[in-house]
Design goal:
By secondary structure, the chain is of the alpha+beta class. It contains 3 helices and 2 strands; from the N terminus they run H-E-E-H-H. The structure holds zinc ion.
Length: about 90
């Protein structure tokens, strides 16, 4: 029965070796505090109300309306909003 023991031992060892090899998880670098990026703008709108595109914090086309900053993907969308903000602002 010696051979069976070795086989089991071999299998479990190879399983462990496999389990140790598979996770190729990249360790997330904790550099939140070291980042010196200017404070991200929090837009009042989650989506561009004109084209319904998701707004990103780094959008350049912004418009302030009633003390809230709205982000737009393009100057066109911003202009459309400017023309009739009430139409797009949802309460
Ligand atoms: Zn847009």
């Amino acid at each position: 029965m010696k051979s069976k023991f070795f086989l089991t031992a071999f299998l479990s060892v190879s399983l462990i070796a496999c389990a140790q090899e598979t996770p190729k998880v990249k360790h997330k670098t904790k550099n939140k505090s070291s980042k010196s990026v200017s404070k991200p703008v929090k837009f009042a709108n989650a989506i561009d109300p004109i084209c319904e595109m998701k707004t990103e914090p780094d959008m350049k086309h912004t418009f302030e309306y009633k003390n809230k900053t709205y982000g737009f993907c393009s100057a066109y969308c911003k202009d459309e909003f400017k023309k009739n903000p009430e139409k797009y602002v949802q309460k």
